[in-house]
Structure formats: C-alpha cells, structure tokens
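A favour, since you know our structure tokens better than I do. Just paste the record in under my message, thanks.
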Amino acid sequence: MPEQVNSDYQVSSEGAVRHWEIPYARLSDVTPTVSNPAKVTCDTAGNELCGTILSVDAGDSVAVIDFTAGMVYWQEVRNVLTYAGAVENTWGPINIGDEIYYDDSATMPAGVYLSTSPLNNVGTANPLFGRAVPRDDTDMALFPKGAALVASTQDVAVMQRGAGA
C-alpha cells in the first residue's frame, strides 16, 4: 500500500504547520485582520488558543489562523505590566524571552492585541501568546525594547505558543 496523507487532521497531528479555519463568532475580535494575533474564545480565561491570522473569508465569516507552535511573527506589543482598575499602572522594557500575552484590555491602543501583562484591565487572566525573540542580529541589538515607567508599543518578533504547546 503506498504511503499517503489521508486528511488535514493527520497532517497537523504529526507536528506539521497548523492552519485552521475558525468562525469569526468564536474569536475575541470578531472583525479579524490578516497578520493580527487572534484569540479563540473558551470557558477558561487564560487558556484560550492563540495564533496569527493568515487570511479572512468575509463571505463565510471564517479566518484561517496559524496555530503552529514556534512560528515567529512580527507583532506590536504593549509594554504594560500591570493595571490599576481600567488604566495602565506599570510598564517595563521587553527583553528576549519575555512572555507575551493576548491582552483584550479596553485600554489597549487600537490595533494592538499583545502585551507583557498576565492580567487584563479587569483582572482576568490573559492567555500566553508566546515569547519575545530577536528577528535578526540588527533587531537583537535593540533589546531591551521600551523603558521602565514609560508606556510604549514596540515592534517585537514573537515566537507563538500555538497549539499543542
């Protein structure tokens, strides 16, 4: 019998790339944009599946999302560490290896979905999206990015946690 791949599931279960269609209604941002981070809603805060949007199909209201563990994407990351109620309270520089979270806080700048805060502005756990990594040697020299005590949004290569991690 010749060897063959029988289904998408078999491919993804073998450690290959994990690209899946997810209905808009299951995403925390129901108006997804290509290249933005995505969070699939679930019942347990902080355990949501996260990935990067590869394409959108407005006709069928689905987005194809890359959930591949270890995939690296260039993302905007807010350097907020903690919130005091509805406002950002403390900030810190982003360094190589720092945890990056999907943050749905109402105080995040428009179009920014990632931060260094494990909790959002209402104290709910943010899911781990991945870790900060250098994009190349030039980018490596720019770490740490941002500063303590100063709010900022930084361009950071993020190695996503993805599915199965």
About this structure: Confidence is low (pLDDT under 50) at residues 4-14. The chain is about 5% helix and 35% strand. The radius of gyration is 17 Å.
